[in-house]
Predict the structure of EF-hand domain containing 1.
Amino acid sequence: MKTSFHRSQTLGYKNGFAFSRLPTVGIGGERLYVNQLSQAELDELSNQRPTLTYGPAKRAPPSGFIPAHVAFDKKILKFDAYFQEDVPLSAEEHYRIRQVGIYYYLEDDSMSVIEPVVQNSGLPQGKLIRRHRVPKNDQGEHYHWKDLNRGMNITMYGRTYCIVDCDPFTQVFLESQGLELNPPEKMVFDPYTELRRMPVRKYITPSDFDQLKQFLTYDKQVLRFYATWDDTNSIFGENRHYVIHFYLADDTVEVREVYRQNDGRDPFPILIKRQRLPKTFVDKKKTFPSCVLEISDQEVLEWFTAKDFAVGKTTTLLGRTFFIYDCDEFTRNFYRDKFGITDFQPVEIKEKSLEEVPRVIPPYNGFGVLEDSLQNCFSLFPKPPRKDIIKMLENDHKVLRYQVALESPNPEDRKRRFILSYFLSNDMISIYEPPVRNSGIIGGKYLGKTRVAKPGSTTENPTYYEPSDLTIGSTIEVFGHRFVITDADEYVLNYMESNAESFPAATLPILHFFYSDIPWLRTSKRELDELIVQVQEELNLHKNLKKKNIQEAFLRCDKDGSGILDKAKFLALCDSLGVPTNTILLNKVRRKGCCVHGQGIYVSECALNKGTQGFAVLEFIGEHSALRNLQCGKSPSCFHSKNGR
């Protein structure tokens, strides 16, 4: 039933030194008897063996402990290995073989990699990996001597080493530990290093040709040819001019490009630098590059010489075909003395005329002024369109003002009045609507200053409204909205009188009527306004009149489409349709001899002739009836309606 099993402390310190002592209590705190055994006796009993017949057996001495840094001191395993290194930026070698020695230290299982130093190698050689325990994988394991063997690859820090052999001590140690070694392999050597060890080739100048003599004879003597390269068959190709120089001193060729003023090309002076150009290769393969930095005599069968250039012939230099059309005077003398050639007639070069591409102007998108937006199609950096400065100075602050009415099927828009301003300095139009109290419509600026094109105008040939188009009674279409000119100010009359040749002949008499000094004519406009109000009140009493039926009846009666009805037929038609024709009101209209135009009045040619009377045609709009936009007849017996009605 014992529950406590702890033992008392047997170690202690006295005067700063550690010593062992016997326990004062037993296991679990039990009492110890006085005759207990000492520590020495307990040690002796633990080592005592059973007593045999001939007495106690002798105890074998314990084996001595030797630490690893003593047992394996200066014992190192050495392996011969190599690794391959890529050389990307060299035309002479693509890879490099580097021989190294891998050292494994048995005393602490550390490793190091050392490359023998080669004098003038140009490589950082010596200790590649310092001595330490090399990690084997990501699990925290390290390389052990059991992982090393001949004929195997080992990867340390991303570099793979191929072990080919080891020294005799390493072989004896591994075999003593029961490790079976692979057969040794041959060491791989660097091919570029072996190539450098080969004896240098010695070139012997043939006795029949002396390069030094050629250099001394033809030094600073150059043949000059004028050639063209026709590349018009390829996309974006063109015919370009070049100068070919052939240096007689060493048979080298140089090609320079001829630049012209404003040709749009960067001034690179040399197309092909001075060098010997191959003419014929030895069994040239498709994979062999034609343009390389170093071409030896082994790849070239024939080089370009002076006899390969002639006026009127083509020659191919590094894939480009040049046509030689002329040469200089020194070249002519050289070929005449050297080869006996006398025909140096230059060839006339006819350059192909470029096809003119028609300029296609995109449609106007409605943003900005038409002339200003059109400049973006002519230049990358558009310039502002030119303005008529003289016209702007002469007509500065000159504005023609008209009163216009909005032509709309909505009854609310018929009572709206606008002020149209035409600026003579730049032919711009602005529209302003005077505010009317309790009308339910916010007045103010209706259209800012802009040039308004006529209906049917195109972006290629735009036509804008001019002062001659703005006459009383004419209709102006402004961005889809139609306005009818009903009145004009007195400045318009003065401007028309001073520029009568720019306006139609029938426009000026109409304005004279409005601003005439005759008393009865000045009162005609006011009286006709009152007459219109009376006619509207009379027609508003008849709610059963329908516009569609009345219009169809008038169109059926106008069989010839002339828009003219005689007086009797007009009155009979009004009676058949139930249109009220009050005799008193009709006589007042006849006496005034005027035509009703919208809600404004203008006098006709008939009214200006004394003894002639004009008549008005009734037109019913919507639910209410009103007189609008009709011209008078040219005789007392006819009625002339607008738009053939």
Summary: Residues 517-523, 590-645 have pLDDT under 50 and may be disordered.
